[in-house]
Write a structure and sequence with these properties.
Structural class: alpha/beta
CATH architecture of the largest domain: Alpha-Beta Barrel
Order of helices and strands: HEHEHHEHEHEHEHEHEHHH
Strand content: 5-15%
Distance between the termini: 40 Å
Number of domains: 2
Length: 306
């Protein structure tokens, strides 16, 4: 349990805890969690760190992923995940919300909200999902300045530099940019939208000793690979950024269609989390127990159909 009911909340900053996870052998698996409940479910499944996707955040708000939400809006999501799970969270920082001073502000805000890491990408606004076409890239020197600013502003936050250059500048162009970002202080490099296992391997071979992040998003340019397969190609972190949101959104659409069709949700009951399962997931009884004046809830039994 976390937040009010936890008795063993970590005292070490999340950035340091994330660095410890990265120092272990093997690949660190970071599934996307688009809200606090998803974070709890991911933790219950055994994951030790989470990813907060800009695409998942904006989609949950009914908006496209074009870099139009603010630092404060993202910090709201960060606090949800951290409060619910107490796990280190890697946050999608888009292009840094501006130039050097804006990047420094973002780093401080996210770290204050409890983030363990942030990634910044070398696109220009309006930015796009990394797996879409015709992305506009920032000058490498400008991006390096943002990374340097982020490093200067952070206390313990892990700084991840994402490059979207492979699509337009080729693998060698992406590698040149990545090396420049490492020189500016990036802790991890995130080569976005590589299209074959061979590309992933070649990139890793050209970046020896640098921790690398692989993005296993669905419906994009990257073929489906497992965590073990990415590890064998030389990667230290793998994320599944929007998977939880995609599954939840599909289920919601089916629910609303069923209600509109049937005049009720009975047909969807087998696919629903029960009240007891939900309360167990969020620790309802533990919160109640904190205040003896709260009457213990009795979960009602649904009446049988007549």
């Amino acid at each position: 349990m976390t937040y009010l009911v936890s008795t063993d909340l970590a005292t070490e900053p999340p950035g340091r805890r994330l660095r410890a996870l990265l120092a272990r052998p093997g690949i660190l698996q970071m599934p996307g969690a688009h809200n606090g409940l998803a974070a709890l479910q991911a933790k219950a499944a055994g994951f030790e760190a989470l990813y907060l996707s800009g695409a998942a955040m904006t989609a949950s708000m009914g908006l496209p992923d074009l870099g139009i939400i603010t630092v404060d809006e993202v910090a709201f999501f960060v606090r949800q995940l951290v409060r619910a799970s107490a796990l280190p969270v890697l946050v999608d920082g888009d292009t840094g919300y501006g130039e050097a001073l804006n990047v420094m502000h973002m780093v401080r805000c996210f770290e204050d909200a409890g983030a363990g890491a942030v990634h910044i990408e070398d696109q220009l606004l309006p930015k796009k999902c990394g797996h879409l076409n015709d992305k506009k890239l920032a000058d490498p020197a400008d991006m390096a300045a943002k990374i340097h600013a982020a490093v200067r502003a952070r206390r313990d936050l892990v700084i991840v530099a994402r490059t979207d250059a492979a699509a337009s500048e080729g693998l060698d162009g992406a590698v040149l940019r990545a090396k420049r970002y490492v020189e500016a202080g990036a802790d991890v490099i995130f080569p976005e939208a590589l299209t074959t296992p061979e590309m992933f391997k070649a990139f890793a071979e050209k970046m020896p000793g640098v921790p690398l992040l692989a993005n296993m998003t669905e419906f994009g340019r990257t073929p489906f690979l497992t965590a073990d397969e990415f590890a064998a190609l030389g990667y230290k972190i793998v994320i599944w950024p929007v998977s939880s949101l995609r599954v939840a959104a599909k289920a919601q659409a089916e629910l609303y269609a069923a209600i509109a069709r049937d005049g009720g949700a009975k047909a969807m009951l087998p696919r629903m989390q029960t009240r007891a399962e939900l309360y167990a997931a969020i620790g309802y009884a533990d919160y109640e127990a904190l205040d003896a004046s709260i009457v213990t809830t009795v979960i009602p039994t649904m009446p049988k159909a007549g």
